[in-house]
């Protein structure tokens, strides 16, 4: 049985190892924990979730929902485990983060085709088939060898994690329970602001003191999808109200009206003992977070079990250094999966692990891989990574990267059409692949 190296046991690496094992390959899965931890990782478990516990929308008519359905068709391990440990989150798929990581770890460690190698991987050579899935905090010797191999400097952006508060420290008399547009039940607690309260909060937020960045992190671009709340707020008084604090789809039963702005709190674990502040990733100093976020209605006495932190994140300029099948250009058998390849998001990273394993497996069997149709969400994401872009930035699943249709359709009808079209095309693609 031929052995394949998979580097990194995050979501992408675990999906890659599982996919290769099911294809009949032996896998050496390298994971540096617990020998060495990145600044963001704390657990020995595989597939550790370091930021949100949400895998985004479940509705098929959403980009995230469409992508997850395609992943299920490809046999996603992470989604199988996620479905077993999900927590209420309106129309989103959110999980108990510890149970999720435990479930993935158990499945990987019990697979007889997968050998776990717990050490830092540094020997990057083209003599063995390899999938690099070391994630957005890739550093050290491996990062330097990647720079040498790709002929270009790695690029960096920032990803900021949101704070988590205890449920029993909240003042529920000031909160109300509702999902936006009542989708999925009352799975979110909402902290409503009136106009005066919001403007006072905004003033403290934009003037609060941020944490000192390391020298290598200064003056680096910030990925738009992970914008720290204080940086977003500095764009203008209403910027946050059109972002994570948007009040649309909410109705405050205490006033009978839509709030001026609102902060949503989502369950962090199945028992509902902790909540995270949705969209409140931040780089404020811990003391400033306590002071400013305690101005949120209902959070005046909140206990913060984790403050927001900012991390350096690495990704490759995919259009320049990867072919259309996640292989590093100029190599025969070195592939990249997950956020390092230029995708953004948990499920996007996991999907990259599945696809890298499939593409590598096909080449090892003597066949050239066939590109996924662009009508599929995964196919469009691969196309995005392969398309020349002088201002390349990480991209998550979204309807805008799909082939668009003309004609008069409202947004709901159009998205529903894209989803149905994509899944039909995916089924035909898989039927052809399995012949």
Numbering strands along the chain, what is their spatial order in the largest sheet?
10-11-12-13-9-14
User: What's the CATH C level of the largest domain?
Assistant: Alpha Beta
Principal-axes shape call: globular
Order of helices and strands: EHEEHHEEHEEHEEEEHHEEHEEHEHHH
- What is the fold named in CATH at topology level of the largest domain? FAD/NAD(P)-binding domain
Helical segment count = 12
* Biggest β-sheet description: 6 strands, antiparallel
The CATH superfamily name of the largest domain is FAD/NAD(P)-binding domain
Walk me through this protein's architecture.
- The structure is a single chain.
- The protein has about 425 residues and is of the alpha/beta class.
- It has 2 domains: about 5-155 and about 315-435, FAD/NAD(P)-binding domain; about 165-310, Elongation Factor Tu (Ef-tu), domain 3, CATH 2.40.30.
- The strands form 4 sheets. Strands 10-11-12-13-9-14 form a 6-stranded antiparallel beta sheet. A 5-stranded parallel beta sheet has the order 6-2-1-7-16, covered by helices on one side.
- Helix 2 (about 65-75) packs parallel to helix 12.
- The model has no long low-confidence stretch (mean pLDDT about 90).
- The protein has helices spanning about 10-20, 65-75, 75-80, 95-110, 140-150, 195-205, 230-235, 285-295, 320, 345-365, 375-385, 410-435, and strands at about 5, 25-30, 55, 85, 90-95, 115, 130, 155-160, 165, 175, 190-195, 260-265, 275, 305, 310-315, 335.
- It is globular.
- About 30% of the residues lie in helices and about 15% in strands.
